[in-house]
Amino acid sequence: MSYAFAAPAHWRDEYAADEHSELTGEQCVIHGEHLLVRARLLIPLLDADTDFEWGVWTSLSQQNFIRMSDLWTTPGRESEPPYFG
Prior knowledge:
Elements: E1 2-3, E2 22-23, E3 27-30, E4 34-44, E5 51-59, H1 62-70
Parallel strand pairs: 1-5
Antiparallel strand pairs: 2-3, 3-4, 4-5
């Protein structure tokens, strides 16, 4: 059970041709200045065997986006302190 969008609301298909913009399944850069990541919010459901998963896009500061990207495949990255989004 989930709800999500493949791209943030600000993304436009024409941005794909912009060398300073990129959209992947989990990260988005718009014009090199808007840095976003897709987060998964797990919401427990009463009387259900599963959680509701809500995929939300949030912006990050440049410093946090770089740090997140540097650690993207690092084991234990989920222990990183939370980033403001």
